[in-house]
Amino acid sequence: MRTLNWLHKWDVICIHKILDATIHPKILPLSRWISKTGDGWMYALFGLSSLIFTKGESSYFWALALGFAIERPLYYILKNTLKRNRPYRVADVPHYIEPSDAFSFPSGHTSSAFLFSMITSVFIPVLTIPLLLWSLLIGLSRVVLGVHFPTDILVGVLMGYSISKFTIIWMGLI
């Protein structure tokens, strides 16, 4: 329990430092936009497009489908079991968007972004760096918008990365 208290205190200090460092009139609209790009529609668009263009023979589609079939249930189980309140509810942090639920751990936007980026990078290697930067910005935007603690993001990164690696190896893509 002491470790969790220490971790929570560290999270509160970090989120305040991040928010102090990102105070700028253009940061909030940019953060909202970046966050919206991780809402999920893009993942479906890429996956379905690959399925259509390959007439159902897309390993990319099936890799995304398997990855998200693992990631989404795990995310929901963790979020609804651990029930960590969002920063604006417990840490005197402003929030600039209304999240779809009350709990913050782990960051689903971040786990989905990293899962998508890692799987896409196997198929389109030239996009690896831009996609990973985009994924990091998704995570940062969620902190800036006041809906996640830094450790929510860190666990989201680890989840997305780990599940993508499992999927890639299990499907024999590397």
Please describe what this structure looks like:
The chain has 174 residues and is an all-alpha fold. Helix content is 72%, strand content 0%. The protein contains eight helices and no strands. α7 runs antiparallel to α8. The radius of gyration is 17 Å and the shape is globular. The mean pLDDT is 90.
Q: What tags apply to this protein structure?
A:
174 residues; mainly alpha; Vanadium-containing Chloroperoxidase, domain 1; 8 helices; globular
Unreliable segments of 5+ consecutive residues: none
* Backbone structural class: mainly alpha
Largest sheet: none
End-to-end C-alpha gap: 41 Å
Cα radius of gyration in angstroms: 17 Å
Number of domains as seen in the coordinates: 1
Estimated share of beta-strand residues = under 5%
What is the CATH C level class, in words? Answer: Mainly Alpha
The count of strands amounts to: 0
Q: What is CATH's topology name?
A: Vanadium-containing Chloroperoxidase, domain 1
- How many distinct helices? 8
Question: What is the H-and-E element order?
Answer: HHHHHHHH
Q: Shape from CA axes?
A: globular
